[in-house]
Amino acid sequence: MGLRQHLPSSASIKSFFGFIHLLLYAEPTWLDKLFLVAGVICAVGAGVPFPLVGIVFGQLVDDLNDATCGDSSIANGGTRDGLQGDINDKILLMVYIAIATLVLIYAHCVCWSLLSQRLAQRVREKYLSSLLRQDIAFFDALESGDVSSRLDGDMQAIETGTSEKVGVFLTCVSFCITAYVIAFIKDAALAGMLVSLIPAFLIMNVVGGHYIQKYSTSMTECFSKASSIASEGLSHIGLVHALGAKGRLEEKFSGYLSGARRGGIQKALATAVQAGLLYFIAFSANALAYWQGSRKIASRVEDGGGGTTVGQTYTVIFILVDGSIVLSQVAPLLPLFGSAVAAFQRLKKDIDNIPTIISTTNSGNRPSAVSGNIRFSDVSFTYPSRPEHSVLNRLSFEAEAGKMTAIVGLSGSGKSTIASLVARFYDPKSGSITLAGYDIRTLNVRQLRGYISLVPQEPSLLDRSILENIAHGLVSSPPHQHLSATLLSDALDQLVSSVRTGMTPDLDKAAAAAGKNVTEIVELARKAAEIADATLFIEKLEYGLATSVGSSGSLISGGQKQRIALARALVRDPAILVLDEATAALDSASERRIQSAIERASAGRTVISIAHRLSTIRNASKIIVMRTDNIIEEGTHEELLGREGPYAEMVRLQTVKPKEEDMSRKPGANNDGEAIEDMVEQSLIGGTEEKGAAKAVEGFGSTDANDDSDSEIPKASTVSTLMPMLRRYLLLLTLAFFAALIVGGTYPAAGAIFGNLLSSLSPCNPVDFIRSRGMLLAGMFFMLACVEFLANFTSWTSFGIIAEKTVYQVRVRSLQQLFSQSLQWHQSSSRTPTGLLGYITNDGNALASFSGSIIGTLFSVVVNFIAAIVLSHILAWRIAIVCLVVVPILLGAGFMQLRSIARFAEKHAGAFSSSIGITVEAVSHIRTVAALSLEELTMHTYKRSLKEPKKEMVVQSLKTNVWLAVANSCGNFIYAFAYWWGSKNILEGKASQTNFFIVLMAMLVSAQLWGQLFTLAPEISRAGRAMSRISGLLSLHLDSDSSHSSGISTPDTDDDLKEKDKDVEAFAEAPRPISPIGASIEFRDVMFSYPARPNIQVLDRLSLSIQPGQFCALVGPSGAGKSTVLALLERFYHPSSGSVFINGFDISRSHNTNWRDDIAYVPQDNVMFSGSIRFNLSLGARPNHNPTQEELEEACNLANVHDVIISLPQGYETDVGSGGSQLSGGQRQRLSIARALVRKPRLLLLDESTSALDAESERALEEGLERARRAGAGNGVTVIAIAHRLRTIAKADVIFMIEGGRVVDQGRHEELVERSESYRINALHQMLA
Length: 1329
What we know:
Largest sheet: 6 strands, mixed
Main location: membrane
Shape: elongated
Membrane topology: Multi-pass membrane protein
Helix content: 55-70%
Strand content: 5-15%
Keywords: ATP-binding, Membrane, Nucleotide-binding, Transmembrane, Transmembrane helix, Transport
Number of strands: 20
Distance between the termini: 77 Å
InterPro entries: AAA+_ATPase, ABC1_TM_dom, ABC1_TM_sf, ABC_transporter-like_ATP-bd, ABC_transporter-like_CS, P-loop_NTPase, Type_1_exporter
Structural class: alpha/beta
Number of helices: 53
Strand order of the largest sheet: 6-7-8-3-9-10
Protein name: Leptomycin B resistance protein pmd1
Radius of gyration: 37 Å
């Protein structure tokens, strides 16, 4: 039983077939098959010539023996000249063989190089295509960093493991097979003994491969989780700074990374054993061959020279010995093949996953038109990730065609789930949903979604222009199929580029030039933007509709984003419109305009509106009220009010009560408010680019997705950056280099034994001398085998351990550096989360693949090269100095290869990075992609991004592989040259045969190893660039805005990392400006514009003052500058002019941010990080404090979310899913508030903190906040709340009305109702009762 556990599984034996499957995966074209066949034939062919050279060498040895052992007449010129002539003929034959080898090596290198790049491209496309056809349930379980980890790490592993290295491997195998064939022909008995090499190598590879693959998989899984943490942190860097969550996220990141490091070290040990055994087997075989060969030659001499000649025996020994050395060079390649198969299997698992709902298929009913009648019949549903938690229970209702059905109720009661089921993101567990009488499960998914427009609770935009985002709504729209080809092409991309670059600044002229379809799309987008009340702010942007919205819409405010999402939904003129809190981020005036627009647009279409603001649904033909998982009442607004049930109570809760009688009697209170709307619209002009702390939290505004010319961090000295990390491993490093030194020295040692043995086997020597010397030198070879095993094992293990520990440090430090940079840094120079994550994933992987075994191999090859040259010059300088002339050719070929690879990679780095960005973005916004059926569009965009590099791939391969072929075929030319010159010197008596063979062996093996080394040139080149980039990142100075408050110290990092953190903490120490009774806030003439759009003024000489302990509210239209006020209080940015004071302390001039410890921040977008509810709540705690269970429960009770949490099966340990996908919008919002309250802050910043809450939850939350405010930190707390719901802030001590980046009025609710018409109209709009 114990033995069986240690044997490899059947899967490891199948890994060979897995590799074959990989090569033929993803529908290869005839050209790919041609490359494969030609690559295999040429690679196999390239292995044949060298053993043939062995036959010629055997004949040359016989000739030289005849020359040195023959009678003295050989000293005569005539005989010597004849012998030299024979030798020259054989050498000329070797030159022809060398030329054939050069051609074959070049051909197979080009074939495999192109094959691997095309294969990686196909697998990438197939992986992306399979991701896009998965259902939403698949993504609920997917970590956010998984995709970029697969596309960076796994694709790189596949490309590396299927490149020209496969050709080199086949050449080595072909060499060995040819060698055995010739050996059996020449001396069957001796060759038969050496057959034992094959099973030995096979067993070693199968067992070793099994363990390498096992540890490789475990390592990748851990690293995937770590990169997921990094991805989320970088995507929400503003929130990380605001929470002081840097240290806690780094701790979790380094925890997962420790698992990857452990797997890496185990993999290094397995590889080291495999490499050591490989050399041990090869050299042991040499020992056996020499011993048996010496006995056979002795017997032949004893028998009087009959039978096998010395040359024949020499041929057998030479080609099998050399074959074993060549085979030993397969060692660094085996882990690459193993990693490629492991990576392929991980990708294939996702690719082969068959979704329940396939959105890209053409199957299913495709009705030409539908009435829009939707019926739910006994629908029960649970989310696949949480099957034990019922969301809907036997739900039945009907949304009548052409009418508006509203759904209201508590957060988490299943309202948004209904929207997801209508769009068929999920299928119900039981019951049925019908559309116009069809069960939606029988309808074609794309067609179904084409009839439905969904505006989600948290609208997401892709990193394109406003025009392209709105046009996305047309992609699967049945009435707009004639525009499909234009939408899938790059016509719109080129259109916005021409506007932005100034080639054709006028959008209409540019559209007209692009064709009638483009003009129609622009007109449709304009009309939709007008209906969605987005035209005003769009027109004020520098490029209008051609303006980029940034990553996840980060360059525009929440309200502006919601309007564009609404325009995108309306542009397709849908039969069914599903609005899930579609106006939550809008002020009342905007909401009313959009509401009336929606009502106009709703005529004749079915509308399902999910809302918490009851003012938006009072005109609905049916209102459904939900609680927990079912309906508790339904009817019209008036009917439900008359029943005095739960709905009537919700209405009362949302009514702004103070002074409402007076308001109704105010002059102008009953007018349409057109003048007010005009005033509000004008106020938008100044603040249209307000993106706020909430957008800052999303964190990345790229001014142009394709312009990454300035995004590169300046490179720095690799030595100065990496040396401090390596200093603590000095002893291990010394041991590793010492072991590699021994490995390098064993080749010349083998040459010395070989030369001596060959001269000892000469038939000129006595029989006993041949036998005894044969046994002695064979014994020495076995001793060399043992030394090789120990040296290789030690070298590979030591370098592997150092590599894993160093890469661990590099990755942890890289994340620390990225987290330590200010938000302004993150948003400048077109930096994106995906691009910055590349430092940890892509560059980290490049460094990891290079720094282990490859450094050891590189060093041992260099040592061997130097040792061979020195030894050769000592023994036979006349021969060595001539052989040395080929060295510059070898070095030059290697250098040129490295240079051409580096230039290609640098040229197309942006394209590769952009292609991964497209994929990660599609996965991050998969609900948007699915709802709009953008799968095909995403694939087209992805393929276009790689068009340029694909074009140059062929030329690149043809150029680069010339140098690889030269480096690999030099050996044969050196052999021919050396034999000619050596034989000439021996015949002239200027060198001995022994010295000649030592020099020959030492120089030739060096040339072969040197050629093999350049097979690793791409890895060396990639690692060089990665080290340079990482060094540049690590040498950036820590930004004082974010370098303090890192939470708890990162465990399991090295001492020098901790030292650095201590320094940062010391640097940040300064008196805290927060007083014990809350905070006083003052803005003095603050001017501000965002770094991405410096020409647009967001705050214009804004001044306001807040007293300690006050509850202050900021109100005003979307985009007026409210969230920016919070961003400046968190000091995410510096004001252009003016000052921001907290308790008299000017934070805008300060060099530290330790006041953030007393500030809690609830952003507009309720971001949750992957992990448990407990982990997410603990992120809100003060730095260096781990909150207790009691503290967490207290905060959750205040935020009215404790009961929800304990109702979940795992309570506080429940996983929230990627981005909080397992929770409803309201639950996420309450958790976000609880996270802020865990800190017990003295200043609480709330940005639309109740927009996703129902009236009841809002009331309970208000009471909790009131308790927190009165008892916060024991002495009260200052609260600044941004809200569009006036009910939320009606009780505020002071309300500031912000319009156009200025405070236009301030006072209590009652005062503003008296004197401010725009405020009064907002309040009236929200009064229902």
